[in-house]
């Protein structure tokens, strides 16, 4: 599970933030869809985690933040985006706590990105 989190979930979560910060709303929307899909695959790959149905847990904590992020991205609303992004991060943290992974705390990316993505350059 940690490989999926580090290799798929975490980068997509960060890319959504980086895209919004760069004003690349199209890429933020794209990565939001990818993040939703990645969480779905995680739940299918790990249907139970510590006697907890992981797909149900994921759905219950991410449903509203995902909806709020989509609305903020569609509206290109920086303030609502920040609030929804923080809510998604807190949803992630609630799962980590519930599954005894309290040492993993997710928040807003800080510092320079390690990504080679160029935001806002599509079609140029």
From TrEMBL:
GO terms for molecular function: electron transfer activity; heme binding; iron ion binding. GO terms for biological process: electron transport chain. InterPro entries: Cyt_c/b562. It comes from the Bacteria. Transmembrane segments: none annotated. This is Cytochrome family protein. It comes from Bradyrhizobium rifense.
């Amino acid at each position: 599970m940690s490989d999926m989190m580090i290799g798929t979930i975490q980068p997509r979560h960060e890319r959504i933030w980086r895209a919004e910060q760069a004003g690349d709303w199209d890429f933020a929307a794209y990565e939001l869809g990818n993040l939703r899909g990645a969480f779905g695959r995680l739940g299918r790959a790990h249907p139970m985690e510590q006697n907890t149905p992981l797909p149900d847990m994921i759905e219950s904590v991410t449903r509203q933040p995902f909806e709020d992020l989509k609305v903020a991205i569609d509206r290109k609303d920086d303030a609502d985006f920040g609030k929804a992004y923080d809510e998604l991060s807190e949803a992630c943290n609630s799962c980590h706590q519930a599954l005894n992974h309290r040492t993993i705390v997710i928040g807003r990316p800080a510092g320079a990105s390690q990504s080679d993505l160029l935001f806002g350059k599509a079609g140029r």
